[in-house]
Design brief:
Largest sheet: 7 strands, parallel
Distance between the termini: 22 Å
Number of strands: 12
Number of helices: 12
CATH topology of the largest domain: Rossmann fold
CATH architecture of the largest domain: 3-Layer(aba) Sandwich
Helix content: 25-40%
CATH superfamily of the largest domain: NAD(P)-binding Rossmann-like Domain
Oligomer: single chain
Order of helices and strands: EHEHEHEHEHHEHEHEHEHEHEEH
Radius of gyration: 22 Å
Shape: elongated
């Protein structure tokens, strides 16, 4: 039998495609560090048995048509899979997998970098020093907010949300969260389940770690921002569409809230007009999982899922249960 063919849509950090080669697959590797245009993507996946995909690639009906009926697995190198039409894959018998858990600590660490960066106005201070405008210590310079003893609100108490909450213990913060169901980690973390309105109204820092779904689209809009404390900080390490960014720009300009820290954006890499002009924002280029250790583990897990499925075994981290008639 010919070796299964696996398409890899862009350049990968170590270990790269080595696990797929070691498994004996024929690998079509688009070794380019950039998103794959749809036409090129559809040609790349034509006739393959498996695809190593990233969140920059849209796995939809057109993608599945181009790949063909022999496609068995799409391994998405991300926790989220909003770039994948999972029902379409399920109907066609295509297994979808993701890479949860291995990036939990990296993303939680980055959430705290954004919390502290926004609270203590780190980017503004850095720009002041680099510009040569700093004139020495002054008692009124760049006064920020202390987070110790304050209330941390977490929207979406999954594994990343729980990891963010654990780190709050060192700051003596009160922890509140909102979830569709009670979190099994809540008791150990001393976290209180509250309704969504209370979470936003009463928290000093709100961190978004919920998935992107139709229900969470623009969950933070103008009305929610208006309900927050004027001293509050909003941090998003989940997905951009959770926040109405035009409303956020207006809130930052009007000081409806004090600051925001964003690692993800609704139309990334494009930003909404005015966001970069807001001095009270900390803006990162989607670095949540960007540690050497986390990215390597994500690559290894995505490859392991492909090896398992094409070898006739169950995937390690399945997203769906494909229709065997697909």
């Amino acid at each position: 039998m010919p070796a299964p063919i696996v398409a890899v849509t862009r350049s990968l950090p170590d270990p790269g495609i080595a696990p797929l080669v070691a498994a004996g697959f024929e690998v079509r590797h688009r070794d380019v560090d950039g998103p794959c245009p749809p036409e090129e993507l559809h040609e790349l996946v034509r006739g393959v048995d498996g695809v190593f995909a990233l969140l920059t690639e849209r796995v939809d009906e057109a993608f599945l048509d181009a790949a063909g009926p022999q496609l068995r697995v799409v391994a998405n190198m991300a926790v989220g899979f909003d770039n994948v039409d999972v029902p379409a894959c399920t109907a066609r018998g295509v297994q979808v997998t993701n890479t949860p858990d291995v990036l939990t600590d990296a993303t939680a660490d980055l959430a705290w970098a954004l919390i502290l960066g926004a609270a203590r106005r780190v980017p503004e201070a850095d720009r002041l020093v680099r510009s040569g405008s700093w004139q020495g210590w002054r008692p009124m310079d760049l006064l920020g907010l202390g987070v110790a003893g304050k209330t941390l609100g977490i929207l979406g108490m999954g594994k990343i949300g729980a990891a963010v909450a654990r780190r709050a213990g060192g700051f003596g913060m009160r922890i509140r969260y909102h979830n569709r169901t009670p979190s099994p980690d809540a008791a150990a973390l001393g976290a209180e389940l509250v309704d969504r309105a209370t979470l936003f109204a009463d928290s000093d820092v709100v961190v978004l770690t919920a998935p992107s779904t139709p229900e969470t689209h623009h969950v933070v809009d103008a009305a929610v921002l208006a309900s927050m404390k004027p001293s509050a900080i909003l941090v998003n390490v989940a997905r951009g569409p959770l926040v109405d960014e035009a409303a956020l720009v207006a809130a930052l300009r009007a000081r409806t809230i004090t600051a925001a820290g964003l690692d993800v954006y609704e139309f990334e890499p494009r930003l909404v007009d005015g966001l970069t002009d807001c001095e009270n924002s900390v803006l990162l280029p989607h670095l949540g999982s960007s540690t050497i250790e986390a990215r390597a583990a994500m690559v290894e897990l995505a490859c392991a899922n492909i090896v398992a499925v094409l070898g006739g075994d169950a995937p390690l981290t399945p997203v769906n249960r494909p229709d065997p008639r697909g």
